[in-house]
Design goal:
The chain is of the alpha+beta class. 16% of the residues lie in helices and 36% in strands. It is elongated. The protein starts with 5 loop residues before the first helix and ends in an 8-residue tail after the last strand.
């Protein structure tokens, strides 16, 4: 592989600082500017971010947090299994709720009878980055996610968006873990996690 020239080194430096552009390329989604993106340049405590750099949603989940680069990002995401916690930095979170509906056509009518309506498992997609210290490849964090994925059981997910839909004991099952290709930056590794909600049901037998 040829050595980078001066212009390429500058481009990599800009890329390292512009996580939003990297995430847009990896996720295929171009987000709009969010006010929390410039909260870090305003006086802490006057814009919903306390002096500690963390603010909470009404449900008690962390809503904004400061990353390793010193900027605030919205909607932190973390998984936990046992005593270990695995955080994904600067995450873009999408959630999908669907219902299973059995439809029976009515003869001589332009409609259907809807029956057996039941909600499906909530599907959650998380695209973010694993950040290392300046110039350090975050190998330990990559291995941590591998360890998390290899857990053959439901794990806990903390995210202000999903907590709006989860009950207290709800967890998730990881269905997919991928590391999308991107311009190589040694201390930023893009990652995508797909999971589904695991809800606890009580079965009453009479």
């Amino acid at each position: 592989m040829p050595w980078r020239n001066e212009n390429q080194e500058k481009a990599v430096a800009v890329e390292r600082m512009d996580l939003r552009r990297m995430l847009e390329r990896v996720s295929g989604f171009k987000g709009q500017d969010f006010p929390a993106g410039w909260l870090g340049v305003r006086q802490a405590g006057t814009s919903g971010v306390p002096a500690g750099g963390v603010s909470l949603a009404d449900n008690g989940t962390v809503l904004r947090k400061k990353d390793l680069l010193g900027g605030y990002y919205f909607l932190p995401v973390s998984f936990s299994s046992g005593v270990r916690t695995y955080e994904i930095d600067c995450a873009l979170v999408s959630a999908r709720l669907r219902k299973t509906i059995v439809q029976t056509p009515l003869s001589g009518s332009g409609g259907t009878v809807k029956e057996l309506v039941s909600p499906d498992d909530m599907e959650i997609s998380i695209t973010g980055c694993l950040l290392g210290k300046r110039g350090v490849w975050p190998e330990e964090r990559i291995m941590g996610l591998r360890e998390l994925f290899e857990v053959n059981a439901a794990v806990s997910l903390k995210c202000a968006l999903t907590d709006c839909f989860f009950d207290m004991d709800d967890k998730v099952v990881l269905t997919s873990l991928s590391f999308p290709s991107s311009q190589q930056v040694e201390d930023i590794v893009p990652v995508r996690v797909e999971c589904v909600r695991d809800h606890i049901y009580e079965l009453n037998i009479r």
